[in-house]
Design a protein that fits this description.
By secondary structure, this protein is of the alpha/beta class. Helix 5 links the parallel strand 5 and strand 6.
């Protein structure tokens, strides 16, 4: 493998579900102008924008991308959510809150940092509706400078075209 191929697979993308892929009580049309789709994910119904799922599937096929589940759904995301909405994330690594959810820090930040220590990435994308609310996560991301792209969508709308275009641009 030459150096350019090594560099190409260097962006870890951490994906939340609720408020990001599955908005809370969405109203009106999606950011793409279509209707919200509703799917039975086995444990609950989820709302999603089919166009956002299609774009996530395209991004996941990008040679620079390494998608990782970082959601309270944990293993339920690949097992139930993916087949219900057509997201090709069944084989993505899943980070767990186990052991971290009792710490004073946000468990997702701790799990992400642990994952980066085990599987270093040159750059990081973090997609979570709670990012704008967590001071420690924002401070950590600011310290990383241009190494981290944080996107905190409106939890009632989920990922937008603009959000996913920013991820695509960041991937190169």
């Amino acid at each position: 493998m030459d150096a350019s191929n090594h560099t190409a697979a260097s962006v870890s993308i951490y994906l939340d579900v609720d408020g990001v892929v599955n908005p809370f009580s969405p109203r009106g049309t999606t950011d793409w102008g279509g209707e919200w789709a509703i799917a039975d994910a086995g444990i609950l119904d989820v709302a999603f924008a089919p166009e956002a799922v299609a774009e996530l599937n395209e991004l996941a096929a990008h040679p620079a991308a390494r998608f990782v589940w970082l959601t309270t759904w944990e293993r339920l995301a690949p097992e139930f959510l993916c087949p219900a909405i057509g997201l090709n994330g069944q084989d993505w690594p899943v980070l767990s809150s186990q052991g971290w959810d009792q710490a004073p820090e946000w468990w997702k930040l701790v799990a992400l940092q642990k994952d980066l220590a085990a599987t270093p990435s040159e750059r990081i994308v973090w997609l979570d509706d709670q990012l704008s609310e967590d001071y420690d996560a924002r401070s950590w991301a600011e310290y990383q400078r241009d190494r981290v792209l944080c996107i905190s969508p409106d939890p009632r709308k989920g990922l937008s075209r603009r959000d996913l275009a920013a991820v695509r641009s960041y991937l190169g």
